[in-house]
Amino acid sequence: MNFALGVLTTLLILFLFGRLKFKSGRPVIERAITQRLSNGPYIVAVGGGTGLSTLLRGIKAFTRNITAVVAVTDEGGSSGRIRNEWGMLPPGDVRNCIAALAENDNELKKILDFRFDRGELSGHSLGNLLLLAVTEMSGDFSTAVEKMNHLLSIRGRVLPVTTEPITLMGKTKGGLEVKGELSISEHGHELDEVWIEPMNAQPLPEVLSAVDEADVILLGPGSLFTSVIPNLLLPDFADKLKDAQIPKIYICNLMTQPDETQGMNIVQHIEWVSVALGCPPDFVIANSEPIPEDIIEAYKEKGASPLYLDYHQREAIKDMGCICVEAPIMSVFESEKEGRVMRHDSQKLASVIFRLVRRLDE
């Protein structure tokens, strides 16, 4: 199968899926649901990777007024190859978020995540190739993303934070300069400084407009240095978020990440976010649910440890001017590749967020 045929197949499958998936025998119920979701709060969710798509799957049950702002510094896998070979921004995180906001996200995710295992398409996912094809057709990555938003009639919209090619940079406490997301991830726990090049990269105007309309800003969950913070390193976007007179909520990870945040606690995560944002978040959501010992041990072997709050951290966060919200927001499930793993529970997390939003409205 040559590349052109692969892209054509991708377009055909996604088009047919998009056309067929909305056929339903319950138009009255669907209209009622649509009306309720249309009256929901306006959310801007900032991040990337698995964390952001997990969040989106939950909050789309409460509102369709969602703008997901996605980092574009990914270098690995299919996204990295497309970035290097075609000069296009990495599509992987954008693809995951579009699938997460779709009506039938499980089926769509299976299709978009399908990976070819041979030929010149080996290693590429269908969703990434689709975004590449639409980008080539439209001549612009942001236009391609918007077209995908409309084609799949997702609940909300997904936007790259910028369409400029940017590179994540950092310097360790020992003075070593590291370049690129992969190197940043390897040296995250040693970093003293992080920035992007070019430093004056501009966010999309639509991203800034979304903040003007928002009722709440969500930061995370996700990799600290490679998913959440890269978005905040665009000065105009960080300034827009800082000046917005609306609640800013940081959602903590469940575990540290090997190398990237190894040995860091929640307070240190918040400190990094606060520096990039220019102010501390108003609220911090952290997990309070006990993690099974077998999972802790399995993660410990990889260099990861649980992120819980203790008395000293709570006091430190309070001194920053943040309000802590601790709640059970995790779930454990069986993965074919990894065995028993844990992730944020989309529904639990969304329920906590929207209970907080309702209390703020009152």
- Poorly predicted ranges: 19-25
Q: What's the N-to-C terminus distance?
A: 58 Å
User: What order do the SSEs take from the amino end to the carboxyl end, as H and E?
Assistant: HHEHEHHHHHEEEHEHEHHEHEHHEEEH
> What name is given to the CATH topology?
Rossmann fold
- The largest beta-sheet arranges its strands as 3-2-1-7-8-9-10
CATH architecture: 3-Layer(aba) Sandwich
Strand content: 15-25%
CATH superfamily: CofD-like domains
Which CATH top level class fits?
A: Alpha Beta
User: Number of helical runs?
Assistant: 16
Shape estimate = globular
- Derived from helix and strand composition plus strand pairing, the structural class reads alpha/beta
- CA radius of gyration: 20 Å
User: Mean pLDDT, rounded to whole units?
Assistant: 88
What are the main properties of this structure?
Rossmann fold; globular; 362 residues; 7-stranded parallel beta sheet; single chain; alpha/beta; 3-stranded antiparallel beta sheet
Explain this structure:
With 362 residues, this protein is an alpha/beta fold. The chain has a single domain, classed as Rossmann fold, CATH 3.40.50. The chain is built from 16 helices and twelve strands. It has helices at 3-20, 27-38, 49-59, 77-86, 92-101, 105-113, 126-138, 141-151, 181-187, 205-213, 224-232, 235-243, 266-277, 293-301, 311-320, 346-361, and strands spanning 43-47, 66-70, 157-160, 167-172, 177-179, 191-197, 216-219, 248-251, 283-287, 323-327, 330-335, 339-344. It has a seven-stranded parallel beta sheet with strand order 3-2-1-7-8-9-10, with helices on both faces. A three-stranded antiparallel beta sheet has the order 5-4-6, covered by helices on one side. Helix 13 (266-277) links the parallel strand 8 and strand 9. Helix 3 packs parallel to helix 5 (92-101) and helix 11 (224-232) runs parallel beside helix 13. The longest helix has 18 residues, at 3-20. It is globular, with a radius of gyration of 20 Å. Residues 19-25 have low confidence and may be disordered.
